[in-house]
């Protein structure tokens, strides 16, 4: 590596990205698995379909389910997508703490090496204040970046609000949720009392917003690293 150039962003080894790849594969492979299982049973003719009960002996469990219940569960995948969104949002928070640590320590070598155990603990203990628009906006400002991400700041706020709703067990939108979105500069495509659920396409959009934001932070870090190398 030249003293005048930082490596490109694609060579970064930030902890988020291996986990992000695994999560993305889970989203798509999970969708494939659900569709395959549905197709398998929907094309199987059974004389007494509504009395059929299923059990997988490899799970070493007494769990049994009717075929009707099994298929209904496979068709309603919202909870699967909700869990993926909650995990993705957690990865975004962790990446924010990672970026905060690099900015505070000025140790740009962390862009291209794994953090030590001691650094991991310090990063883990960092507290990000406010919603994503607050701590994220502060990071972007320090990095010389704006909110030029997929669906902008308002889109990421919407993602964050929905993630919080799922994480706290909400099954329908509340007026407080809608008011909070408006106060934070966003909106929800819901009315009070509407059920909140996720489809594959919606989950994919939320993950795209999060990834876009994290990559925006990465770009700012790489530029700062270049300035640091050139200033030596």
Written description of the protein model:
This protein has 232 residues and is mainly α. The protein has a two-stranded antiparallel ribbon. The model has no long low-confidence stretch (mean pLDDT 90). It is built from 8 helices and 2 strands, in the order H-E-E-H-H-H-H-H-H-H.
Quick recap:
This protein has 232 residues and is mainly α. The protein has helices spanning 16-42, 67-75, 78-105, 117-125, 132-142, 152-167, 175-183, 200-230, and strands at residues 53-54, 65-66.
Low-confidence stretches: none
Strand arrangement across the biggest beta sheet? 1-2
Overall residue-averaged pLDDT value: 90
For the sheet with most strands, the description reads: 2 strands, antiparallel
How many beta strands in the DSSP annotation?
2
| Basic shape | globular
Q: What are the secondary-structure elements, in order, as H or E?
A: HEEHHHHHHH
Number of helices: 8
Tell me the fraction of residues in β-strands, as a range.
under 5%
Mind telling me the C-alpha Rg? 22 Å
- Percent of residues in helices comes to 55-70%
What distance lies between the first and last C-alpha atoms, to the nearest angstrom?
14 Å
Based on helices, strands and strand pairing, what is the structural class? mainly alpha
Topology:
Blueprint: H1 16-42, E1 53-54, E2 65-66, H2 67-75, H3 78-105, H4 117-125, H5 132-142, H6 152-167, H7 175-183, H8 200-230
Antiparallel strand pairs: 1-2
